[in-house]
Description:
Transmembrane segments: 21-41, 199-219, 226-247, 405-425
Radius of gyration: 33 Å
Structural class: mainly alpha
Number of domains: 1
Number of strands: 0
Protein name: Secreted protein
Helix content: over 70%
Keywords: Membrane, Transmembrane, Transmembrane helix
Strand content: under 5%
Number of helices: 13
Distance between the termini: 33 Å
Low-confidence stretches: 1-5
Amino acid sequence: MTAVLTSRPVREAAALARTTPGVLTVLALVLVLASLLAGLLTSLSVRGRSQAVDELATRSGPLTAAAQEIYRSLADADATATGAFLAGGLEPAETRQRYEADIAQAGNALAIAVAAREPADVTAQDSPLAVLTGQLPVYTGLIETARADNRQGLPLGAAYQREASNLLRSELLPAAQQLYQGESGQLAADQDRATRPPWAEVLLALVVLALLLVAQGFLRRRTNRVLNAGLLVATAAAVLSLGWVLIATVSAMNDTADSRADGSAQVDVLAEARIATLSARVDETLTLVARGAGSAYQDDYVKSAGQLAGLLDEARARATDPEVARIVESARADAQAWASAHTAIRAADDQGDYVTAVRRATDAGPVGAAGSFDRLDRDLRSAIDRARDTFGAEVNAAARDLSGAMAAVIALAVLVAAGSVAGIWRRLRDYR
Length: 432
C-alpha cells in the first residue's frame, strides 16, 4: 500500500515532466540555476584577477621595490664609505651625508619588508630579514671604527674597512639578493594570475547561451512563435556579460603584460646594472685601500665591469620607452668614460704612483673615476624611476579595466535569470 502511495506522486511528476508545461518549468529552473551559477563563478574569477592586480599595486610591487632599495642602498653605502676612506683624514661632509642617507634608506626599506612579514619569518634563523636586521648594525659599527682610525691616521683603519666590505658582500648583500628574488618571484606570480586567459569565463557564458538557444528553439517548435521577449532580453544580457568580461579581462591582461615588458622586466635589468656599477666601484676603491694586496679586488672589478657592459646592452635592447633608451645610451657612454679612468688609475698604481692613483679615483670631474661613476649611477637611477613609473601606470590601468566588471556580471546574471523566467512564464500561462 505504501509503495503504491509512494510511486503515485513519482509517476505523476514524471508524467508532468513529459508535458510541454513540465518541460518549460524544467527549462526555467535550469536557466535560472545556470545563469546564477555562471554569474557567481565568473564574478569570483574576475575578483581573483582584480585581487592579483591590487597585489601588484599595493604589495608585491612596493615590496619588490623595497627589496631593491635595500640592496642598492647597502651597496652604495659601501661604495661611498670606501671612496671616502681613500680621501684620508676627515671625509667631505657631502660624502658623509650620502653614506648616512644610504643607511637610513636601507633601514626604512628594511622596516617596510619586516612589517609585511609574519614575526616567524623575521626571526627564523638564516632568513634574509634576520641576517639583515642582525648584521646591519655590525657593518655600520665596523665602518665607524674604520672612519675613526682613518681620521687619526692609524693603518688599522684599512683592515676595518676591508672587514666591513667583506661582511657586506658575504652576508648582507646575499641576504638582500635572496629577499629581492623572493619578492620578484611573488610579483611575477601576481602578473601571471592577472594575465591568465579567461577560458572558464568564456565557457560558462557559452553554456548559458547554448541553454538559452535550446529554450528558444523548443518554444518556437511548441508555440509557433518566432520571438520570445523575455528570452531575447536574457540572451542579450548574456551576450553583454560575455562581451563585458572579455573586453575588461583582455584589456587588463594587456596592461598587466605591458607592466612587465615596459616596467618590471626593465627595472630588473637596470637594477642589476646599478648593482654591478656599485660593486665595481667598491672593488676599484678597495684595490687602492689594500695598497699592493688588491689583486683579488681588481679581478672582481673586471668581472663586475664585464657584467655591467652586458647588462647595459640588454637594457638598451629591452627599452621600449624612447626616454629610457636615451638614458641608457648616456649610461653606456658614462661606463666607457669610467673604464678609461680606471685604466689610468691602474697605470698609476702599477707604476708605484699611489697618490696619483688615489687622486684619479676620487676625481669628481668629467674625466675622473668618481665623476663618471656618479653620472652613471644617476643615469641608471633615472631610468629605473621612469620604468617604475611605467609599471605603476600600467597596473593602475589594469585596475581601471576591471573596475565594475564584477558588479556588472552579477547584475547581468540576475537579468538573465529574470528574463528567462519572465519569457517562459508567459508561455506557461497559455496552458492554464
